[in-house]
């Protein structure tokens, strides 16, 4: 009897040890796979307080992040997620409380016209990247960046999709130059000013994202409205800011644009292109961090690909974080859940490999740890 009792104790101890050492990163059971896929999705939602929809996405589908906007496009440019400092602080706290894992809470707070935290809501005034570059003062850029990063940290935001490292190669560009989003037409100056922004954000544990790879500054079109072909306008010098950051050990994210360069990939835009994502950004330039898509709701994608095909191509190509802002002309309820189910079904069908999911989960987990995102 004593032998049986000791054997049962041993089995119980081994079972408990196995439970305590269960590793989600290498497990492909249904529940672990669901969690890992969820961590790859960053979604937008309607509401100045958490909606039932976003609660479901966080609690049931384990999404890894949310992205906040001040204006709701599908609602006629009315209120979206931001109306005051006190409201924003409560919103971010409530969102974090819903998640059983670190939650990325993201925003596009470049300054100037790309500015979600506006003075009319009670936040500090900002200036464009172009005006900072034109001033020639790196110290002034540091002060601007520090003010922005401090504001974000105070209100619970831990990811800022900055800096825009597009080179101002086309002064008539309708989405970069027009809005003053580029620091300079000189790629080395772009790097120097953008580096101040990265440094000030990282000091405050806010993850950044260089954008829009491989370069949107020379384009003649706006990828929000449709596929943007940069084949005849793009120049390799537009890679210089990325190359310098990565050579210096940059540990934030890179956002890839919906940009067609047929000299790199004759078939797919950068965000869906293995040749661009894995061939150029990973292998040639050597980036090891998280690769994020630009918003998958933009016209460049939705007008040319089904959501199913776009997700398959992006993940197989090398993307780790899928952004679905859900802030276009049409709002799709439960879009994050649909993305999750599509990805999971494609893994089950062998159309997306489990290794791709594991790789993304590992890179995202490292990013969260590096920035102390909780």
What does this protein structure show overall?
This protein has 374 residues and is an alpha/beta fold. It has one domain: Glycoside hydrolase, family 3, N-terminal domain (TIM Barrel). The chain has 13 helices and 14 strands. α3 (52-59) links the parallel β1 and β2. α2 (30-39) packs across α13 and α7 packs across α8. 47% of the residues are buried. Residues 1-20 have low confidence and may be disordered.
Strand content: 5-15%
Oligomer: single chain
Superfamily (CATH H level) name: Glycoside hydrolase, family 3, N-terminal domain
Average pLDDT number: 93
Write the layout of secondary structure elements.
Blueprint (H helix, E strand, L loop, with lengths): L1 H19 L9 H10 L1 E3 L8 H8 L5 E3 L3 E2 L5 E2 L5 H14 L5 E4 L1 E3 L2 E2 L13 H7 L2 H17 L4 E2 L26 H17 L3 E7 L14 E2 L10 H8 L5 E4 L2 E2 L13 H11 L6 E3 L5 H4 L4 H11 L4 E3 L10 H14 L5 H17 L4
Parallel strand pairs: 1-2, 1-14, 2-5, 5-8, 8-9, 9-11, 10-12, 11-13
Antiparallel strand pairs: 3-4, 6-7
Helix pairs in contact: 2-13, 6-7, 7-8, 9-11, 11-12
What features would you highlight for this structure?
374 residues, alpha/beta, TIM Barrel, two-stranded antiparallel sheet, globular
Quick synopsis:
The chain is of the alpha/beta class and 374 residues long. It has 13 helices and 14 strands.
